[in-house]
């Protein structure tokens, strides 16, 4: 797995767990880049990305949220999100771009498309896991933190 020449290349299945926030140096998500990363739960795609190639997220079956910081939906192949549960994976899009994503091929297949305001000053303080989205994954991360610290205090 590697990042090379501003391209997210190939991560073999299950190497990435939890949240993935792509750096803003990535311009292209290559073909099969995250293929079968079944433990990937959240992904943030920066506005530096200009291309998402075929099957990039195919069989990322446990994705619960995708945050796209790109104002205009990219034209992507129909198989980019094959195997992603589009009824249970929320697509977060920049404020003002809901209608574009709701009508764009492939993107419109997500049942839950929600706008976010990047400049909401409170949003970042509730983003416990740092994936750029405030959701159930943050609650889980916070609960694990509390339980781990409570266990350490009890053992002391």
Keywords:
alpha/beta, globular, four-stranded mixed beta sheet, five-stranded parallel beta sheet, 9 strands, 156 residues, 2 helices, 17% helix
How are the SSEs placed, and which strands pair?
Blueprint: E1 3-4, E2 7-8, E3 18-21, E4 28-29, E5 40-45, E6 51-52, E7 65-68, E8 90-94, H1 98-103, E9 113-116, H2 136-155
Parallel strand pairs: 2-4, 3-5, 4-6, 5-7, 7-8, 8-9
Antiparallel strand pairs: 1-2
Q: How are the strands of the largest sheet arranged? A: 3-5-7-8-9
The residue ranges in which pLDDT falls below 50 over 5 or more consecutive positions are 1-5
Number of helices: 2
- Strand segment tally: 9
The percent range for helix content is 10-25%
CA-atom Rg in angstroms: 16 Å
Which series of helices and strands comes N to C? EEEEEEEEHEH
Task: Report on the architecture of this protein.
With 156 residues, this protein is an alpha/beta fold. The protein contains two helices and nine strands, in the order ββββββββαβα. The strands form two sheets. The protein has a five-stranded parallel sheet. β8, α1 and β9 (113-116) form a beta-alpha-beta unit. Mean pLDDT is 82; it is low at 1-5.
Short synopsis of the structure:
The protein has 156 residues and is α/β, with parallel strands linked by helices.
């Amino acid at each position: 797995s590697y990042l090379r020449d501003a391209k997210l290349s190939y991560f073999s299945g299950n190497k990435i767990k939890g949240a993935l926030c792509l750096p803003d140096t990535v311009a292209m998500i290559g073909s099969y880049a995250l293929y079968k990363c079944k433990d990937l739960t959240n992904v943030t795609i920066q506005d530096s990305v200009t291309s998402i190639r075929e099957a990039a997220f195919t069989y990322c079956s446990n994705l619960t949220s995708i945050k796209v910081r790109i104002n205009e939906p990219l034209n992507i192949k129909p198989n980019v999100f094959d195997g992603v549960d589009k009824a249970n994976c929320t697509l977060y899009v920049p404020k003002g771009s809901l209608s574009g994503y709701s009508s764009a091929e492939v993107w419109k297949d997500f049942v839950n498309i929600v706008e976010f305001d990047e400049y909401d000053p409170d949003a970042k303080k509730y983003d416990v896991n740092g994936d750029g989205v405030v959701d159930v994954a943050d609650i889980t991360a916070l609960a694990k933190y509390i339980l781990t610290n409570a266990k350490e205090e009890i053992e002391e």
